[in-house]
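As noted in the main text, all predictions were made from sequence alone. Below is one such record, for Insertion element protein.
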Amino acid sequence: MSGRAVPFHCPYCGEEDLEPYEGDGGWYCRSCARAFKLKFLGIGVVR
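Prediction:
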C-alpha cells in the first residue's frame, strides 16, 4: 500500500492525464504541463 494521496484529476485544468512526478506526493499533468504536490494534513476538524 502506498503512503501517498492519489489525485483523480488535475486541480488546474480538471483533466485525468496524471503521472507521478519527482516522488514524495508530486504529480505532473500531461494536459496542461503543470506539476503539483499533495500533502495529507489529517482527518476531521481541529477545535
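The chain is about 0% helix and 25% strand. The CA atoms of residues 18 and 29 lie 5 Å apart. These features were considered when defining construct boundaries for the mutagenesis experiments described in Section 2.9.
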